[in-house]
Amino acid sequence: MVATNDAVLEVRQLHKHYGTHRALDGVDLTVSRGEVYGLLGPNGAGKTTLMKAVLGLQRPTAGTVRLFGGAVGRETLAQVGALIEVPGLWPTLTGDETLRLHARLRCVPEQWTEPALELVKMTGARHRKVGAYSLGMRWRLGIAVALLARPRLLILDEPTNGLDPVGIREMRGIIRSLADEGVAVLIASHQLAEVAQVCDRVQVVVAGRTRYEGLLGGLAVDGDLEAGFFRLLETADAAAF
């Protein structure tokens, strides 16, 4: 893990309120160059809201987000690749046509589509219509789109969604190889086992609040990560009453 002075993403005291509901309630995090950082928590914990705030898709109620030492804006977001929730793809286009269209939209060379397809192992399906793709294939193509502009920060919401066991293992390898090349990766998941195999540090978010942040091993109870995770959830539930 690299030093924190290589910070790519910094979030400080981030709040997002919807009336009386606090989707985020003072979250802090720092993701550094070459690091894989995991956001863990149950559905509705605030993970996706946090990612959308980082991408400028949600306006925070309070707090700050800084990308590469600057504010969230056109120039900084151009260096970010993201896949949040369901990939937005056109079913009548082929995989190759989809990437070429996104290359033009993002003003990157069309020849960059080839390595993106190769990385997610989709070259064999490049000429098939997206409408005929399985969920796992759509997810791979969505990640290829996110990687197309060769981002310095990659944000993935449930990156193994719809993948079979072989695909899950391959995705772990892709994420780690990107980090080894210096890309900062932020992952959100509720799958503890998957996060445990790929992340350098994690944050557990429950009901919009940070319940744990640090090395994954520090979350364990008597060496059991799952026991530690569920103890945090139980403690958070008890504190709500």
From TrEMBL:
Tagged with keyword rRNA-binding: no
Lineage, top ranks: Bacteria, Bacillati, Actinomycetota, Actinomycetes, Kitasatosporales
Superkingdom of origin organism: Bacteria
Entry GO MF terms: ATP binding; ATP hydrolysis activity
Keyword Transport annotated: yes
SMART domains reported in the protein's UniProt record: AAA
Keyword annotations: ATP-binding, Nucleotide-binding, Transport
Name of the protein in question: ABC-2 type transport system ATP-binding protein
Family (UniProt): Belongs to the ABC transporter superfamily.
InterPro entries named among the record's database cross-references: AAA+_ATPase, ABC_transporter-like_ATP-bd, P-loop_NTPase
Positions of the ABC transporter domain: 9-232
UniProt cross-references to PANTHER family, sorted A to Z: ABC TRANSPORTER, ATP-BINDING PROTEIN (PTHR43335:SF4)
